[in-house]
Amino acid sequence: MTQRRVGLWLIGALGGVCSTAVLGLSALSRKLTDTTSLVTASPLFDGVELDDFDTFVVGGHEIRKSSYVEAVRDLHQRSNVFSEAMIQACTPDLEKWTANVKPGTILGSGPTISKLADHPDVQRVATPREAVERIQADLRAFREANKLDQVVVANVTSTEPPKELSDAYTSIAKFRALLDTKDASIPASALYGWAALDLGISYINFTPSLGSSFPAAIQLAEERKASVSGKDGKTGETLMKTVLAPMFRHRNFKVLSWVGHNIFGNRDGVVLDDPVNKASKIQTKDQVVSSIVGYKPQTHVSIEYIQSLDDWKTAWNHIHYQGFLGTKMILQFIWQGCDSLLAAPLLLDIVRLTLLAQRRGESGVLKHLACFFKSPMGCDQHDFFEQMDMLAAYVAKVKG
Ligand SMILES: NC(=O)c1ccc[n+]([C@@H]2O[C@H](COP(=O)([O-])OP(=O)(O)OC[C@H]3O[C@@H](n4cnc5c(N)ncnc54)[C@H](O)[C@@H]3O)[C@@H](O)[C@H]2O)c1
Prior knowledge:
Elements: E1 6-11, H1 16-29, E2 56-62, H2 68-79, H3 84-98, E3 101-103, H4 111-114, H5 128-145, E4 150-155, H6 172-178, H7 188-198, E5 202-205, H8 215-223, E6 227-229, H9 237-250, E7 254-264, H10 267-272, H11 275-286, H12 288-293, E8 298-305, E9 312-322, E10 328-338, H13 339-359, E11 364-365, H14 384-399
Parallel strand pairs: 1-2, 1-4, 2-3, 4-5, 5-6, 6-11, 7-8
Antiparallel strand pairs: 7-9, 9-10
The structure holds nicotinamide-adenine-dinucleotide.
Nicotinamide-adenine-dinucleotide is lined by residues 11-12, 14-17, 61-64, 104-106, 109, 113, 116, 156-159, 188, 206-207, 232-233, 235, 266-268, 339-340, 342-343.
């Protein structure tokens, strides 16, 4: 029997999260590292048929000129992560997969992201439809050239500005018509999503951008028997919020205010330094506390770009709450994590579960993946423990 081959197509392929995920895939398949921090490698998943790490072929779209070797070396030097020995051992995979990375589109990405685009062949297209067709041509070529049994697309590009949706986003027919409108300003994340879903390829949105989180795209996913999930990987500060807020609720404390300050210095931080792009991120980070405690304490979220920190993020949270006899108390925490190292395993988990879902004939929004996202699609539940129960219930169903 020939071994199953699956394709992972990454949008934002050479960014921090993707490069780390790709190095991780190679290191895992060469048994150079263990599976620590991969949820899908925990005992909950024993007996579930997930794709092994050595079955993956990587490709993707990018708007900057770079390579996987350059990207991981850069992270290694700036943020003191990975080892030189690991990079060297994985270099054959990194070089092979860099050859599968194609120039992407910046249509609808906004000025701050467009400034990053230094690849001479970035797609300059006249209409959104042309962008979709070129993305699809790249996806088909990847699938055929590598004889892939299944492909999944993950959007891990820089955070786009928020998008107000018109009526054109409500049905497949209306959105198709919008694709022919020159100045439609459809965000690139939505074009990538549409292109993938239309080919029956599932689409993961690891970012706060629009992606496929609009009715027409969800309808298309169902029609093409593919899935969508998102938005915005829950990796650090927000993960802590969704773990701690249930404690305040269960102990019947009253949360008066919750302030979160985030500082970090990677490329994501450069883009989030633009207040317009930052607004999308703050939206996904700020809603979780009220939704869990059931009322609206005063909240504040700040994100600041501090270049010297590189990929190391510090999040300081100050939670002011009221206990017995009106007494006010304080909980503070400081989270210090390396952003790409927190995000990459989560991305691989979501990828494996998305491939599994499609093999099982599941389509539309994958609600059981809520625990992986700050703003889970199709699910109002933000409590991390409730979300983990949803995932466990799904796994129990899979195991039959
Ligand atoms: N812990 C985390 O790092 C974390 C957690 C949750 C979500 N995210 C989100 O994941 C995304 C990526 O984060 P990162 O740290 O890897 O950022 P990054 O800037 O290192 O990577 C983003 C990549 O996307 C590329 N890109 C931008 N627009 C593109 C387009 N239209 N087509 C193709 N490529 C494009 C950029 O050139 C860059 O290489 C961000 O939106 C971030 O907010 C990250």
